[in-house]
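Dear Dr. K.,

Following up on our conversation at the group meeting, I've run the structure prediction for KLLA0F12298p from Kluyveromyces lactis. I'm pasting the input sequence below exactly as I used it, so you can double-check it against your construct before we proceed with anything downstream. Let me know if the numbering doesn't match what you have in your notebook.
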Amino acid sequence: MKAAVFSDFDGTITLQDSNDYLTDNLGFGKEERLKVFSGVLDGNKPFRDGFKAMLDSVHEPFDSCIEQLLAHIKLDPGFVETAEWCAANDVPLVVISSGMKPIIEALIGKLVGTERAKELGIEVIANGVEVDEATGEWHIVYRDDTPHGHDKAQTIEQCKKRFAADKYFYCGDGVSDLTAARECDVLFAREGCDLAPYCDHHGIPYILFNNFTEIKDRIAKELS
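The predicted structure tokens came back this morning:
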């Protein structure tokens, strides 16, 4: 296999982060969220704890949360084109997210199309959700016991064993991508978000992007 592409979902494949949207509009608000993110970036707070605090501040029923996200979250305009290119060139595309799989699948179902996503072979690896059907109350169910809740570095390592590709690409934007930043041959960081300055501070090479068309073109060039 010549290559595999791993990507964060919220704020990377989508233009808005669905978890930020829920927290800012239905939870304790943007100001408190930014304080949480600052602590994670500084290394003073585990991502797992900060993210759970964000989601626990949201008290809307889960179905209502999904309805609001479907109405407001938009897809990066170049993502489908990139997914089509990956499928046509036998390059696996795996979404590796610190978000929740039911929300991601609902958004992909609307923004890409459930059947189309299956045809393109888009795989989703993310956290789960436990919902109380009687009350609608819900909470995140993390994939692992690490301080990250979902250690993307571990997941990427597992995928590498499965794919055994010649080159690996990772696309991300923010604090949930910190463990993944060093794991691939080429890192794409969305311009204007938290991942790029983190990489600058720690000397991690990356390529800035504004949309997935740029990512597709660069991957095609790297593999030509």
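Two things stood out to me. The chain has one domain: 3-16+75-223. The first helix runs from residue 18 to 26.

Best regards,
J.T.
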